[in-house]
Amino acid sequence: MENRELKPCKCGGQAGVLSISVPSDENCVYYHDLYYVQCDLCDECTDYSQTKGDAINAWNRRAGDGT
Q: Pick from 67, 66, 4: which is nearest to 35 by CA?
């Protein structure tokens, strides 16, 4: 995956890519990761994405940033 830079948050804080592990089946035997981007200052965040790249893209195009 290419290294993509996160745009800064509108509040001036720094954003980071985070992940959570969620069960993939009803028996909670298998897990997969979902990714999201969150600001360390105001806690604004994206919805969960299947890949890091999708989470970064969602953050960088959030409403009102002109892209």
A: 4
